[in-house]
Amino acid sequence: MVRVTHGTLRLSNTGGRAVIALGTRLASIFEGINGLIRELRPGVIVVERVFFAKNAVSALKLGEARGVAVLCGAIAGMEIVEYSPTEIKSVVTGYGRADKKMVARAVTQLLGCDGFETADASDALAVAMCHAYKTAGSVGASKDLAAAFAPQKRTRNMPLAKAMGVCR
User: Fold this and answer.
1) 3-class secondary-structure state, position 46
2) Measured CA angle at 77 (ends 63, 28), to 5 deg
3) 103 close to 113: Cβ distance less than 8 angstroms
4) What's the average pLDDT block by block, 10 residues per block, for the chain (168 residues)?
5) What are the helix and strand counts (H, E) for the chain?
6) Of 59, 83, 107, which residue is a domain's last?
7) What is the domain extent for residue 56?
8) How far apart are CA 146 and CA 135, in angstroms?
9) If exposure means fewest CB atoms within 10 Å of the residue's CB, which of 5, 89, 95, 145 is most exposed?
10) What is the CATH number of the domain that holds 48?
11) Are 48 and 85 a contacting pair, CB within 8 Å?
12) What is the pTM of this model?
């Protein structure tokens, strides 16, 4: 499995909480994602399924950003796939209630990265890795990706980290 790119869209120039108007922030997300779609030409957009959060304001903001991502994919005619946070964590770490540090550590080990600037970057890669794992070996899946899972016969329920030999 090879990481092509990753990152975090910066929506504030203050280094702290966003002070930019809602419409401007959503437009920035729209332009950023559309730029990546034009540059990288992916065939699918994978997003984390909506979940219930303790903080309603944060959940609403996340939903708005997620909606923009889905809209970008729909406009580009891309397939849109969703996975629950528990499913993503189970696939990547083997534990559906893993915390952000556990997810970041698994992603770092699986991709051979030095770390990530933000937790959002490692979370996004975990979502992508979950989809890659779920579709490996299916019709149209990359031969390279399917080969990445060849070292061990894997089952549908085997965590990605175990299939890749990162953990036992």
Assistant:
1) strand
2) 45
3) no
4) 78 64 93 95 92 80 93 97 95 93 92 85 93 75 38 50 47
5) 7, 2
6) 83
7) 19-83
8) 9
9) 5
10) 3.30.420.10
11) yes
12) 0.76
